[in-house]
Amino acid sequence: MSPVIEVRDLRKTYGNGDTAVHALRGLDLIVQKGEYIAIMGASGSGKSTLLNILGCLDIATSGQYLLDGIDTGEFDEEQLSLLRNRKIGFVFQSFNLVPRTTALANVELPLVYAGVRRAQRRERALAALELVGLQDRTHHRPNELSGGQQQRVAIARALVTSPAIVLADEPTGNLDTESSREVLGILDRLNASGRTVVLITHEDEVASHAMRTVRVVDGKVAGVLV
C-alpha cells in the first residue's frame, strides 16, 4: 500500500543570497493512510512551513511531495486548490472563522467554493456540526461562542468536504484545558474512524494522542518517537 503522504528531500528557501532563510533543509517524511502523527519542534524549526506544503498552501523550492501518489510539483495553482479542497481539511490555531456569519454559514463555506447546491450544503454542514457536538449552536456567530466552541466549528468546516487527511496547526494553542480535551477527543475519534491526522504542537501532552511523534530541528527530521 502506497503512503498517503510521501516527502523526499524537501527544501524550502525564502529570499536570496545572504538574507536567504532555509526553512526546510532536505526533509524526508512518510505518513501511511490512517496514521495519526504529531510534528514537534522549536519556533523556526520548519514545522509550520512543512504543514503548509503538505496542505498545498505553499510549494517547495526543491524536492518531491507525493499526495496519495500524486506528484504535487507538477500542478499549477488551480490544480493545487482543487486537490486541497478534495483531500485535505485544515484546523488552525486562530480558528479563521468569518466573524459576521453563523456557525452554519462558516461550515458551509468550503462547499460554496466547491459549487455544491444549497440544500446539500445545508445538510452536510448540519451533519458536520452534529459530529462536533454543536448542533444547538448553528445560528450563533463566532463572538457568541467560547474559544473551544469556535475551534469545534473550525473542525466541522474542515470535515464538511469529507477529506481523507486532517492537518491541524496548534489546534489547542488558544484553548483552556477543558476545551483542549474536547478538541483532542474529536481528533482522536476522527482518526479512529479512518482519517489520517497530522498535528503540529509544542506540547508533549497533546503529542501523546498521536501514534508517533516526528521531531523537526533546523528544517530536518531529527527523530521519531513511537
Describe the structure.
- Keywords: ATP-binding, Nucleotide-binding, Transport.
- Residues 5-226 form the ABC transporter domain.
- It comes from Lentzea waywayandensis.
- By secondary structure, the chain is of the alpha/beta class.
- The protein has a single domain (32-58, 75-225), classed as P-loop containing nucleotide triphosphate hydrolases (Rossmann fold, 3-Layer(aba) Sandwich), CATH 3.40.50.300.
- Helix content is 34%, strand content 27%.
- The protein has seven helices and ten strands.
- The chain has helices at residues 47-54, 77-87, 103-113, 118-131, 147-159, 177-192, 204-207; strands at 5-14, 21-31, 36-40, 62-67, 70-71, 88-92, 165-169, 196-200, 212-217, 220-225.
- The strands form two sheets. Strands 6-7-8-3-9-10 form a six-stranded mixed beta sheet, sandwiched between helices. A four-stranded antiparallel beta sheet has the order 2-1-4-5, with helices on one face.
- Strand 4 (62-67) and strand 5 form a beta hairpin.
- Helix 3 packs parallel to helix 5, helix 4 packs across helix 5 and helix 5 packs parallel to helix 6.
- The radius of gyration is 17 Å and the shape is globular.
- The mean pLDDT is 92.
Number of E-type strands: 10
Distance between the termini: 21 Å
Count of DSSP-assigned helices: 7
According to CATH, the homologous superfamily is P-loop containing nucleotide triphosphate hydrolases
CATH topology: Rossmann fold
Strand content: 25-35%
CATH class: Alpha Beta
Pfam families: ABC_tran
GO molecular function: ATP binding; ATP hydrolysis activity; transmembrane transporter activity
Keywords: ATP-binding, Nucleotide-binding, Transport
Protein name: Putative ABC transport system ATP-binding protein
